[in-house]
Amino acid sequence: MVVVFIVGYLMIALEHNIHIDKAPTALFTGMVCWALYAFYLGESNDHDTVHHILEHGAAGGGGLIHHIYEIGGILFFLMGAMTIVETVDEHQGFTLITDKITTKSKVKLLWIIAILSFFFSALLDNLTTAIVMISLLRKLVGDKQTRWLFAGMVVIAANAGGAWSVIGDVTTTMLWMKGQLPDSVVIAIPSLILPSFIALLVPLLILTFTMKGEADRPSTSRGEGHKFETNKGEKIALLIMGVGGLLFVPIFKTVTGLPPFMGMMLSLGCLWATTELMHKKKDQDHKYHLSVISVLKKIDTSSVLFFLGILLAVSALQEVNHLKAMAVWLDETLQNNYAINMAIGFLSSIVDNVPLVAAAQGMYDIATPEAVAAGTVSSDFLANGSFWEFLAFCAGTGGSCLIIGSAAGVAVMGLEKIDFVWYLKKISLLAIAGYLAGAATYIFVIA
How far apart are CA 402 and CA 165, in angstroms? Predict the structure, then answer.
């Protein structure tokens, strides 16, 4: 399984060299990993036992059903967010924002996009923010290579912004919900704001001194001169409903305890119904072009299938405890809490950060004040202790080192068709510099 995963990972990284899209490679990798697991179980179990273990886990831990539920939630969330953003875009709602950004300076535009991404990610989450910001970038930057550079910074900014918010990244939400980081000011983890901002600031400063010139806008923006125009009122209404619907998702999750994708689908349903009523008196062609049904045909399905394959592959490795064994090995080898968390951050750029954080949560218990007083455990492991805070930072920002290392990165990779190797050459060193600077800020200033 490990060999299949590594080969599949390399094929994804070299998709432009081998001329095979990353989606079929990811699907093949995910399905073969689970098939190998099934064959392994079949050597010592009968068919019914194998079926039960695959579905429910070796010790009732969840198995394939549990992983499909979690992966399905992510995919439905992604599809809902993409549909909402695309619907707002189809109504030219984002032009209300892009028309206000008049600067053509690459440096000024980079700062605007990065800061917006940083704070949007804390309010929404890094995945949704990446989708929204790519939609804005397509209206602001015409040149593909320049837009890819901006998109790389969106990944860094979205992951950095998500790391200091309990709803900004899946891993911070996990640590919040399971009691490791129960205290927060509204949604923020105060001690992580400065390190997270430093993780963005360092790459921004590097590019500020190396990037020159002006950004050329696309020659023709989508919808300009098109017979299916929308008026200003419709643009404003869709922009408010779209952004409001995305902001509603974390509120819905907090209030109801239901998975985020259900809040996203509720927002999509409301937006869909609104567009139906808004355009009911228009001719059929005009109404259809602006409908969600039409928009659904434009969703990047290959990106969704790529997500499915890569997440299934990682879940297979998690199911046979490879990731747990990796976490134990790190603990035994490094024997330093800061070093362990930084290693988890780097590993999260290769393997999904969710199972790595889950493995760390399973390895270490939340310390009690009594145990700390008795000297049996470090105070770092108390609720809101430095181990959990630094884990949230590292798992959230470390994924920026490779484009495949975070949900935001994978989404941007799919939407903009960014080459893995290009990101490695142009963005990875910037992300690593920011990651190390942010980590140093936490260790020497905050902790």
Answer: 22
**Tokens at 194, concatenated:** 């400065």
Nearest one of 347, 379, 422 to 146, comparing CA atoms: 422
Say if CB 429 and CB 400 are below 8 A apart: no
423 against 175, higher pLDDT? 423
Per the listing, tokens 């105070």 go with 379
Q: Supply the DSSP string of 79-109, one letter for each residue.
A: HHHHHHHHHHHHTTTTHHHHTT----BHHHH
Report the distance separating Cα 302 and Cα 23, nearest Å: 6
Side chain identity, residue 205:
L
CA distance 125 to 264: 12
- What pTM was estimated for this model as a whole? 0.80
Amino acid symbol at 116: L
Cα separation, 369 vs 375, in Å, equals: 10
Contact 319, 37 (CB under 8 A): yes
Q: Helical H runs in 257-368? A: 260-278, 284-289, 292-296, 301-319, 322-334, 337-347, 353-363
Number of C-beta neighbours around residue 69 at 10 A: 11
| Residue with the two structure tokens 């330093």 | 336
15 within 8 A of 21, measured Cβ to Cβ: yes
Residue with the two structure tokens 């009690």: 368
Tokens of 113: 């996009």
Alpha carbon separation from 269 to 53, 168, 248, 264, 273 (Å, rounded): 37, 23, 13, 9, 6
Range with the lowest mean pLDDT among 14-18, 312-316, 443-447? 14-18
The percent of residues in the chain predicted with pLDDT above 90, rounded, is: 35
Structure letter (DSSP) for residue 297: T
User: pLDDT for 217-234, tens place per residue?
Assistant: 887 544 444 446 788 899
